[in-house]
Automatic annotation (TrEMBL):
InterPro entries: Bact_Sigma-Reg (IPR052016), GAF (IPR003018), GAF-like_dom_sf (IPR029016), HATPase_C_sf (IPR036890), HATPase_dom (IPR003594), PAS (IPR000014), PAS-like_dom_sf (IPR035965), PAS_fold (IPR013767)
Domain (PAS): residue spans on this chain: 164-200
DNA repair found in the keyword field: no
One Pfam family from the record: SpoIIE
Database matches in PROSITE patterns: PAS (PS50112)
Xref: Gene3D superfamilies: 3.30.450.40, Histidine kinase-like ATPase, C-terminal domain, PAS domain, PPM-type phosphatase domain
Keyword NAD carried by entry: no
Keywords linked to the UniProt accession: Hydrolase
Protein name: SpoIIE family protein phosphatase
CDD domains: HATPase_RsbW-like (cd16936), PAS (cd00130)
């Protein structure tokens, strides 16, 4: 990092799993926000996301992330541990690739966004770093007022008191000065050690997406909220927070608080008008006059500052700002003050006039008394506000939002206030739209990375249950607090609750039980998200019923586990719930349900992202279904080609081991069969069809069933094989040549067994005698499926007690390791060690020898048929 001084560092390692990318993004965001580097957070998160994705998804290794803070900016380093990466030559130019590729965009983004960046290779690591410099900030005096006569200074009726409160890293009060005790009525002994949030009334969300606890973690913060005094009243204060650390490095937050009407003591002054040295004229930026300087550089902060200044400008009790969707058909609540923002944030209302619609969005409007026109401003329903003035925010004639202020009294506003508010709205509209577009661009960057990651994960599996789990895990908590996936087996089936996930694992069982008790959403194929009120209503009823029973039975203050679970579940589903159809191949195969906790809403961009995800997830889920169905059909058909079982042959042990090559195959080109022909006579066969896969399996089925049929018709071995040869040739272009060992077995009264065998192009059967000698038990003859006329003959073999007949396919004898092959001689050597073993033990030893001969998995089917005449028991 050159001569830059490192003032802080943070490091973490992320495992090579899909969720690590989101965890890494959160780590970098939290680290940089904690350092007060909000200016570069978004770019740092985008770059980290791409680089960590390359490591944990594409390289498949753990990723080390290191954040380094300097006075000039921040440096982030990402390393992976891929051991087989080719180290590029220094003279070779780096290939950034195409932005449209699904991977490899990390270096391209570094070049586009970072101030400086680099990549370092070693035989075991790839190390990518980027530097983001902080933008230049003006320093020095912001403004200085003139010297005024004493008679012109503002009048105060008492001594100005500045409450100084220090909050430790755990959020507890560690210092409370005398002015704080005077203003709020609590002594230092009463509050020290208690959580600061216990005394705070947080009416809105100023400049952040969270509340006071998170505001205390910021390096610097300024704004207004309330403190609950000892008498129970809420005292409005203006606060200035500064995050500091002691000599041991422990952080704490110092809060300076004054009464809200004395905010000028702490409030950042408005910057003086810029003077032009080349002229005597002075210009004033109306935007800075209204918003103040420096203006917040993030959208949420700008919107919150706007509603606060609008409220103050018209001496209102509340203010709100809504932003329009791209098509201008809906408005989304983005900032409020004096209203329950947690309930309203991201709520949406239609623009056009009508019941429950925002009819005054496109033109300034003044409502002297909302009780006379209920529903005129849906946002203010049941808030106690009576008079309101609203004005549009427009950019080049296009509606981009609406700004409004409201008061609890009637008749507070007239056209004059509307003009003042409209003038202010016109000054800020362009800045708001610019910030909104910047936010949308950052969201789209994140959405692109999210969808690429989701597509990679969904494409990596064809297992239905794993696909369902991935769908839920990708939405929680990135898009929603909880998620439920319903699946539909076919057009006549009802939706089935297949998977439920909540960001709090303790709530999953309660959520699943609640959803199981209510009717599933209708499987409507209409694209887009639609609101589903049933979970919130069911949760409300369950909570009400539980609370009523507890009161009726005079339950103690400590609630039972079941009651707590019911109330927590009701809270979890109490917000907005939306349903997105899972449509694949013009059929609804399920529904993706997303939910928020009590009184929370989805923002439109999140719903659009969820819709994109649902389309990809639906196709992945349907592909998994089709794969499962085809695998089930394939396995069922393959199992029908195998013999139902081995018959019990008197005085003869028979064992078969069968291995089909290829993933998911149960039957290939090799086959076997042992079956009764008539009383005292049994047929056996082992064959190998040319090739593997479904085509070979089809000939396998033909051969096995034809052998049984012909043998039971009384044909001898040569006649059976000649007719089978004709049947194979009749298949024409679909025919395949076949090697086959066929024989008939007759157990004898003296304990031996008589065999008559025909070996048509097949590896010769081997006979193991009691003395350990091994010999061929037949002579080779022409294979089937090639020649029209065959002159086949059968040979007799007698197995004496203790003898073994081993029959295999060429997948055994042609087992290879490089240039080495097991061969007939190698098989004979293994068989010679099997003296005294049962037929099952002989087959197992042959299989182990074949598997150990080569390290690679077998590429050909294998069948092993062992027959042994046991020795008579000793008397």
């Amino acid at each position: 990092m050159g001569s830059a001084v490192i003032t802080a560092r943070a490091a973490a390692t992320f495992e090579p799993v899909g969720r690590s990318v989101a965890t890494a993004r959160a780590f970098v965001r939290d680290t940089l926000q904690g350092w007060g580097y909000n200016d570069v957070v978004d770019d740092a998160v985008v770059l980290t996301s791409e680089l960590v994705t390359n490591a944990v998804i594409h390289a498949g290794t753990a990723a080390d992330v290191l954040c380094l803070r300097t006075e000039e900016g921040v440096r982030v380093e990402v390393s992976d541990h891929y051991p087989e990466r080719e180290v590029p030559l220094q003279s070779s130019a780096l290939d950034f690739g195409s932005p449209d590729r699904e991977n490899g965009r990390g270096l391209l983004l570094c070049a586009a966004l970072a101030s400086r960046w680099g990549v370092e290779y070693s035989p075991t690591r790839k190390h990518v770093w980027f530097q983001l410099d902080l933008p230049d900030r003006p320093v020095g005096i912001r403004s200085a007022g003139p010297v005024l006569p004493t008679s012109l200074l503002p009048v105060t009726d008492q001594r100005i008191r500045v409450a100084v409160v220090q909050i430790d890293s755990a959020g507890a009060i560690s210092a409370w000065n005398d002015d704080a005790a005077y203003v709020f009525g609590h002594t230092a002994e009463q509050v020290t050690g208690k959580q600061f949030t216990d005394f705070v009334a947080w009416p809105h969300t100023p400049g952040t997406n969270t509340g006071i606890a998170d505001a205390l973690q910021l390096s610097r913060w300024e704004g207004s909220y309330g403190i609950r005094g000892a008498d129970g009243r809420t005292i409005a204060v203006y606060a200035s927070h500064l995050r500091v650390r002691d000599t041991d490095g422990d952080p704490s937050t110092v809060c300076l608080l004054v009464r809200d009407d004395e905010r000028a003591v702490l409030q950042t002054p408005v910057r003086a008008p810029v003077s032009d040295a080349s002229s005597d004229s002075r210009t004033t930026d109306p935007f800075e006059v209204f918003i103040g300087s420096p203006a917040p550089d993030d959208l949420d902060g700008l919107l919150q500052r706007t509603v606060e200044r609008a409220r103050d400008m018209l001496d209102a009790d509340a203010a709100f700002l809504l932003l329009a969707t791209d098509d201008e058909t809906e408005l989304e609540v983005r900032a409020t003050t004096g209203l329950p923002s947690a309930r309203q944030r991201f709520a949406r209302v239609p623009v056009e006039a009508g019941t429950g619609r925002y009819g005054s969005a496109r033109m300034p409007a003044v409502h002297e008394d909302l009780t006379a026109v209920p529903g005129a401003v849906p946002l203010l329903t049941d808030t106690g506000m009576r008079s309101v003035v609203t004005v549009p925010l427009k950019v080049e004639g296009r509606l981009t939002g609406s700004l409004g202020v409201a008061a609890e009294g009637a008749g507070r506003y007239s056209n004059e206030e509307a003009l003042r508010l409209q003038f202010a709205a016109d000054r800020i509209a362009l800045a708001v739209e610019s910030a909104r577009l910047g936010e949308l661009e950052r969201l789209r960057r994140g959405s692109l990375s999210f969808l690429v990651e989701a597509s990679d994960l969904l494409a990596g599996t064809l297992d239905r249950d794993q696909t369902l789990a991935l769908m839920a895990q990708m939405t929680v908590p990135t898009l929603a607090t909880w998620c439920a996936v319903y699946t539909i087996a076919d057009q006549s089936s009802e939706p089935y609750l297949s998977y439920v996930l909540h960001e709090d694992e303790d709530l999953i069982d309660g959520l699943k039980a609640l959803l199981s008790k209510i009717a599933p959403p209708d499987p409507v194929p209409t694209p887009g998200a639609r609101v589903w009120a049933a979970p919130a209503e069911a949760g409300h009823r369950a909570a009400l019923s539980t609370s009523t029973r507890s009161l009726a039975h005079d339950a103690p203050l400590s609630m039972s586990t079941a009651t707590r679970t019911t109330l927590a579940t009701a809270q979890a589903v109490g917000g907005e719930t939306v349903v997105l159809p899972l449509v694949a191949r013009n059929r609804v195969i399920g529904m993706l349900t997303l939910g928020k906790p009590s009184d929370d809403h989805f923002r439109q961009e999140i719903l659009e992202l969820a819709e994109d995800l649902s389309r990809r997830a639906a196709l992945a889920l349907d592909n998994a279904r089709l794969y499962s169905e085809r695998m089930a059909i394939s396995q069922s058909l393959q199992r029908s080609l195998l013999p139902p079982g081995l018959p019990d042959v008197p005085n003869v042990e028979i064992e078969v081991i069968y291995r089909a090559a290829g993933e998911g195959n149960e039957v290939g080109g090799d086959f076997y069969d042992v079956f009764p022909i008539r009383d005292g006579a049994y047929g056996f066969a082992i064959g190998d069809v040319c090739g593997t896969g479904p085509e070979a399996a089809a000939v396998t089925g033909l051969a096995r069933h034809a052998l049984r049929l012909l043998a039971r018709e009384g044909f001898g071995g040569p006649a059976v094989l000649e007719r089978l040869n004709a049947a194979i040739l009749d298949e024409g272009a679909r025919s395949r040549f076949l090697t086959l060992l066929y024989g008939e077995l007759w157990p004898q009264e003296d304990g031996s067994a008589l065999l008559k065998v025909v070996c048509a192009g097949h590896p010769l059967p081997l006979r193991l005698r009691q003395d350990g000698s091994v010999e061929s038990a037949a002579e080779p003859q022409p294979l089937l499926g090639v020649l029209d006329d065959l002159d086949l003959y059968e040979q007799e073999v007698v197995l004496n007690p203790g003898d073994v007949l081993l029959c295999v396919t060429d997948g055994v004898t042609e087992r290879r390791e490089g240039t080495r092959m097991l061969g007939d001689d190698g098989l004979a050597d293994v068989l010679s060690t099997c003296t005294g073993l049962t037929a099952g033990a002989v087959a197992a030893r042959i299989l182990r020898a074949v598997e150990r001969f080569a390290a690679e998995p077998a590429s050909d089917d294998m069948a092993i048929l062992a027959m042994r005449v046991p020795e008579p028991p000793l008397v």
